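<context>
A single protein, sequence plus fold
<entry> Chain with its tokenised backbone below
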Amino acid sequence: MALRLSPADTFLSFSEFVHGFTLLAARCFEDALPYVRRAIVAFPNFPSHYALLISCYGHLGLQDQTKMLLAHRNSLPGPPLTVSLVRNQLRKYATGPIIAEGLIKAGVPES
């Protein structure tokens, strides 16, 4: 509803990200894709968006798309994306294992 009521909101990317994150947590991977993609378009330099998209691709068996996406994500500032990084960052959240599982399926390195 918030997305429909405020389509020009400067925080729209965050809403898209959270919506995609929620759908990924519910294991609705295909449904999560458009939201996460729009979040990336709005903020292409935010590394966390890429982890979600790569995880979705992994769950859906779309490994071909992940190689280029992972390389781009790892060109952004900060540490490279690894499964252990995500496990550490999301260790307190029930969604952490779901995201990590997708990253493993996508071929993201453990450490």
Observations:
- The domain at 14-106 is CATH 1.25.40 (Serine Threonine Protein Phosphatase 5, Tetratricopeptide repeat).
